[in-house]
Design a protein that fits this description.
109 residues, disulfide bond, Cytochrome c oxidase assembly protein PET191, Cyt_c_oxidase_assmbl_Pet191, 47% helix
C-alpha cells in the first residue's frame, strides 16, 4: 500500500519539473505547490496535486484499509469509463456464472 501513490507522485514531479514556475521563474518545486504560486501552475499539475493528496488520504482511510487505493492506471475516471469492477472473491461484479463452474456441473444441481 505505501507504493500505491508512487505513480501519481512521479507524474506530479515531472509536471512540476517542466512547469514555468520552476523552469522560468526558478522557484523550488515545494514553493510552487503552495498558495501564491499554485495558481500559476498548469491545470494538469493542479489536478495531479489534488489527486496525490486524495491518494495519500486514502492510505489512512479505514474504509479502504483492506482493499487499498485503486492503481492510477486502472481507475475508471482516468480511463474514461466502463469496465467491470471486481468483487472481493475476484469474480466480476457483472456477468454470468463464475468461470470455474462448467455447464455440466450446473445441470447436476
Amino acid at each position: 500500500m505505501p507504493s500505491s501513490c508512487k505513480d501519481i507522485r512521479a507524474a506530479l514531479a515531472q509536471c512540476l519539473e517542466y512547469s514555468d514556475c520552476v523552469m522560468v521563474d526558478r522557484n523550488k518545486p515545494a514553493d510552487c505547490l503552495r498558495s501564491p504560486l499554485l495558481e500559476t501552475l498548469p491545470t494538469r499539475c493542479q489536478q495531479l496535486k489534488k489527486g496525490y493528496g486524495e491518494c495519500k488520504r486514502g492510505m489512512v482511510d479505514m474504509r479502504k484499509r483492506f482493499r487499498g487505493n485503486y492503481p492510477v492506471a486502472l481507475s475508471v475516471e482516468n480511463e474514461g469509463g466502463g469496465g467491470s469492477r471486481q468483487l472481493y472473491g475476484g469474480g466480476p461484479a457483472l456477468g454470468g456464472p463464475p468461470s470455474g463452474i462448467k455447464a455440466e456441473d450446473e445441470e447436476r444441481k
